[in-house]
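hey so u asked for the seq, here:
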Amino acid sequence: MITLTHQWLPRRIPDDIDVRRIYGFCFDAVGRVLLGVEGSGESSEEHHMPGGTPEPEGYDCLATLVSECRREFRVSIDRPVYLGYRKVRDEAARLTYAELLLAARITTFHRQGPDSGRCRRLRRLLTPLNSASGRLGWGSTGLQEIAAATAVATSVFGLDLTVPQGEVYRN
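ran it, structure tokens below
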């Protein structure tokens, strides 16, 4: 049985921790965040944040997020800001690694073409930030990450997250 523990650390990542994933809270113009949706019907849907695996030869977290947003989500982003990292510990394998989290502004939604087979086809859901944790299955463990993203959205991107926004699919 795999037992993973997560710890949110809003600081620079130490050089000796392996980075396995890079994720982004990507905000639209009204402050909703982008999630990818796979499956059909609420019980079979899986929600994903934009992001991906860094290249093995020295990673650039900003370039990884920009590239994965463009390739899988068909959006262009601007002004990625580092938020911190999630320290993940796999107790069974006695392995520790990091998942970086960034925040960015979506500048362009590109037309989604036919499924090329090279990457999964995701439906693009724009959801209020306070709904993202539930959609991602984080529960209360994601509240610190949400708080960090909220701070950047309001102070750096100038978004007003107090105005209620509904969910919308963007095709």
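Residues 61-73 form the longest helix (13 residues). The two ends are 39 Å apart (CA to CA).
lmk if thats what u needed
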